[in-house]
Design brief:
Oligomer: single chain
Number of strands: 5
């Protein structure tokens, strides 16, 4: 995470790297002096392992407020 403050325009820019997540999995909200980030993801993966078919599913939620 990187924060950049511009005193001239009174803005703050936050850059966050979220590898493996897609943009549709991430939501943000700004309220007064607080910024909230919400992650909600679901993944499914199917692959063959020898003579077996493997299906893996994962999901999770995360939120943080600054």
């Amino acid at each position: 995470m990187a924060l950049h403050r511009n005193s001239d325009t009174e803005t703050v820019t936050m850059t966050i790297e979220l590898p493996t997540l897609k943009q549709r999995d991430v939501n943000d909200e700004a309220h007064e002096k607080h910024l909230s980030l919400f992650l909600d993801f679901k993944r499914s993966e199917n692959y063959d392992k020898g003579q077996r078919m493997v299906r893996e599913h994962s999901c999770g939620k995360f939120s943080r407020t600054w």
